[in-house]
UniProtKB/TrEMBL annotation, chains A, B:
<dbReference type="GO" id="GO:0003700">
    <property type="term" value="F:DNA-binding transcription factor activity"/>
</dbReference>
<keyword id="KW-0238">DNA-binding</keyword>
<dbReference type="Pfam" id="PF00440">
    <property type="entry name" value="TetR_N"/>
</dbReference>
<feature type="domain" description="HTH tetR-type">
    <location>
        <begin position="17"/>
        <end position="77"/>
    </location>
</feature>
<dbReference type="InterPro" id="IPR050109">
    <property type="entry name" value="HTH-type_TetR-like_transc_reg"/>
</dbReference>
<protein>
    <submittedName>
        <fullName>Putative transcriptional regulator, TetR-family</fullName>
    </submittedName>
</protein>
<feature type="DNA-binding region" description="H-T-H motif">
    <location>
        <begin position="40"/>
        <end position="59"/>
    </location>
</feature>
<dbReference type="InterPro" id="IPR001647">
    <property type="entry name" value="HTH_TetR"/>
</dbReference>
<dbReference type="InterPro" id="IPR009057">
    <property type="entry name" value="Homeodomain-like_sf"/>
</dbReference>
<dbReference type="GO" id="GO:0000976">
    <property type="term" value="F:transcription cis-regulatory region binding"/>
</dbReference>
Amino acid sequence: MVESMPMSRVAQQERSKVTRRRLLEASLDTLSDVGLAGTTVSAVAARAGVSRGAAQHHFPTRDSLVEAALEEFFAERTQQLRSSVAKLSTGSGAAAVDAVDEVVTLIFGFFSNRPFHAALHIWAAASTDDSLRELIVPAEARYGREVYQLTALALNADLSDQHTRRLLGLTLDVARGLGLGSVLVDTRKHQNDAIKTWSRILDGIKRND
Amino acid sequence: MVESMPMSRVAQQERSKVTRRRLLEASLDTLSDVGLAGTTVSAVAARAGVSRGAAQHHFPTRDSLVEAALEEFFAERTQQLRSSVAKLSTGSGAAAVDAVDEVVTLIFGFFSNRPFHAALHIWAAASTDDSLRELIVPAEARYGREVYQLTALALNADLSDQHTRRLLGLTLDVARGLGLGSVLVDTRKHQNDAIKTWSRILDGIKRND
């Protein structure tokens, strides 16, 4: 074996990013499985296959780790929705019911996928754990505003109109309710009916010119 | 001390009912706190202050206990909604928006109270636990149908009309979504807006003559 070259600065930074990312993913898995009580820096490090020392270099405390994991989770979810919205065929100014249908399908689907189910575990844990709740609430509020804005953008909604704002808010409530319903059983048929009905209702919003 | 009289048959039955009830309540608390893995007949008996033998007399296995606890939970929730619906001022045939408002307030509130939050823990646990899921799904389906029927009754809805049926289904989806939103933060203002907006939409259902 030849002696290995000292790792370059770039390679070190790259490895550090990979470690950080693995720790964040392992945090969410650990939170989902065992709640905040069992989510220690050591437990997460073990799950991520990272040494405890390396984990503590990135995240000195449990709270800093959980906070970063939630931020990452929300950032990824927002990014995913943003790119889906960008791919919509509607474009700005479209107002046909079938275009609304496409947006509603996207938003409802966004709340019925696996990450939403994972989030549910964390929500349930936070409902009886004040320190987890304090970490989640501000991050969730920012996330909620971004999802709302992206939904408005996808629908080209005129947010100066109160009824339009309220219908957009309800759209996300319906989406969360459908997501919750989909946790234990396959609700695709019901979801498809809901998309049709909700699209008709949402077609009544005001659009930007 | 005088020797105690042998307990009468009626008193025995009464005591047995109280014991059963305490076990069922303790089961739900235990499920919420530690999930199915930690919900053993012994753990529930200890929490209920009942001997392990007495607990096993009522519920020989953990599954029989959990199943009964969920049935009891759903039965109580249905009974609570039934009596609330019976107290509504709407009566049969009422169609004014403010009457719809009253029904919507009732239904949305029903999904944002403490038992709903407790149920959320159990749902989250069931999403990663097949045996708990198998216990919940049929009981939940029956419960869902009853809540739907009671909502239809409260609104005097004509269930032969497809759009009416779909709006009723969506009403429960909105209610669940609002309930989920209310787990971590106080959403009363948003909930009040949602009641107004949804009542306007729901005023478009068909009524029985």
